[in-house]
Amino acid sequence: MAHASLTGAVPADGAVVNAPPKTLSLSFSEPVSPLVLRLILPDGQSKTLETFVLRDRTLEIAAPGDLAAGTHVLAWRVVSEDGHPVAGSTIFSIGAPSSAPQAAGEAIDWPVRTALWLARIAMYAGLFFGIGGLFAVRWLIPDGAAGLPVIKMALLLGFSATVVSLGLQGLDALGAPLSNLTDRAVWSAGLATSFGLTVVVLSFAFLLALVTSSRATFSGRAASLVAVVAGSAAMALSGHASSATPQWLMRPAVFVHVVTIAIWIGSLPPLAYALQHGGDAARQALGRFSRLIPVCVAALTAAGLLLAIVQVQTFDALVSTAYGNVLLAKTALLVVLFLLVVANRWVFTKPAERGELGSARRLARAIIIETMIALAIFAVAATWRFTPPPRALAIAAAQPVSIHIHADKAMAEIAVTPGRAGPVELSAVILAPDFTTMIPKEVTFVLFNPQAGIEPMRRKATLQADGVWRASGVVVPIAGQWHLRVDILVSDFELVRLQDTIEIPR
Asked: Running DSSP on this structure, what letter comes out for residue 437?
């Protein structure tokens, strides 16, 4: 379920080094923040690694000074830029491999995941029916004030769910069970993610709406406007769109999408209350609603299409990814909702505006059905919390696979871009034993896969202006473990060969 992916490690995954490393490093496809770093020793004991430096997308970790020979597992858990936790491990051996120690697997904690999903639904309900409903009562449908008790309940539900979701986010970030919800470290971890800022701003919006919900004066109207703006802005501070580019376009698109949903969906319960009471005020409110909502629907549809295009990218991803499947399910429910909206507008609204007997009550019942469909959409959309968008998957797939190979006379930092089977580019930085840049006369890459019966493929590299040797147009026909050799012609009389294995994924 990773939203950021590991692109390289030192020592490389599966590497055998002669001496204990002084520094361990992990490189990722996007900036991350470390949560838990553990080194599992050959005897099965675990050491927590607390000394590290974060340099852009690379995490440099100070290794313990008393590492023994054998196989070690570096287990890591970080939070990606969009606020979602990512976990994994790499293996390296000192001297020679030993039986690998067991690292805890990344099993799905269904109680935590279910609680996160339910909290997200309640948070949406509070935002759209609570904050959005209060805005509707104060600005669009004053006659719907009879629904204020329901609106206050939605606000309390949303505020409670938002606060609890911070702790649940911390559990998910640390991989802790639901029983640890009261631990202070769990809440600190949740607050440290980008979702923590969403919780802070959204909680402010809920509290403002709750405190001013009984005020029908100008201050109450102004507070409802601030609450709906702050609540919508909060949703743009974390999540998939927070790390998508260009953010100057994506974050406003999320804001427009959320604020228009809040105005539209939040108006439904107050409008149903007003219609049940009837009268001129209800008909006037229906007229205002009928004029405003088409504009809101058009804006949220345009913003939603933009977000979908950026996140999904290809039609194939709609079917082949979990994110695309959720989008299809949400779209199907939206189609049903839009059809009902059209029916309400052309079948029920005109008679209700004319005051025909029973028409207002029929429209109110139809609005209640719309509300139920909206709740179903919230439930479907809440599952996006657990599905990386195709955009993120494509970025991860395009990241290079890298290895470090060294010998007595030279070493090389080699990258295969993109890090998957198919057409790739091979690149290498050649270094002297003292880590200074070496400029050899010639560099040749050699790839072969004996298990698959593939003989050596040789590609001569070209030195670029940035000091990197590159060979383009190389095709890795299948995924799997490949042998990669670099032939470095240091002089007319000296050839250094560096060789290691590299895992090429699909």
From this structure: B
- Cα separation values, 400 from 26, 27, 418, Å: 13, 11, 5
CA 471, 476, 482: angle at the middle one, nearest 5? 100
Q: How far apart are CA 210 and CA 154, in angstroms?
A: 10
Where are the strands (E) in 11-143, listed by range? 15-17, 23-28, 32-40, 46-48, 52-55, 58-62, 70-80, 85-94
Q: What tokens does 495 get?
A: 């050839």
The beta strand positions in 366-493, using DSSP E, are 401-406, 411-417, 422-431, 442-449, 454-460, 462-463, 469-476, 480-491
What one-character DSSP code corresponds to residue 438?
Answer: -
What is the Cα gyration radius of the chain?
29
**Where is 498: in which H helix or E strand?**
strand 494-504
Question: Higher pLDDT residue, 401 or 446?
Answer: 446
- Does residue 71 sit in helix, strand or coil? strand
SS3 state of residue 141: coil
Given a contact cutoff of 8 angstroms between Cβ atoms, the answer to whether 58 and 26 are in contact is: yes
Helix (H) or strand (E) holding 495: strand 494-504
**Residue for token digits 């439930």?**
379
CB proximity list for 14: less than 8 A, separation 6 or greater? 91, 92, 501, 503
Residue partners of 440: CB distance under 8 A and separation at least 6: 410, 430, 488, 489, 490, 496
Main-chain phi, psi angles of 64, to 5 degrees: -60, 150
* Residue that has been written with the tokens 């050596």 in this structure: 456
Structure pTM? 0.78
Contact between 484 and 414 (Cβ < 8 Å): yes
3-state secondary structure of 321: coil
Which phi-psi region, left, alpha or beta, contains residue 451 (left: φ > 0; alpha: ψ -120 to 50)?
alpha
242 CB-near residues (< 8 Å, 6+ apart)? 81, 82, 83, 194, 236, 250, 251
Q: How far apart are CA 308 and CA 351, in angstroms?
A: 37
Q: For residue 94, list its beta bridge partners.
A: 17, 70
Respond yes or no on whether the N-terminal peptide bond of residue 246 is cis (omega within 30° of 0). Answer: yes
Domains of the chain plus CATH, in order, are 1-104 (2.60.40.1220), 110-392 (no CATH), 400-506 (2.60.40.1930)
- DSSP 3-state of 130: helix
pLDDT digits (tens, 9 = 90+) for 38-89: 898 888 888 889 888 888 788 899 999 888 888 888 888 888 877 778 888 8
Give the Cα separation of 482 and 457 in Å (integer). Answer: 11
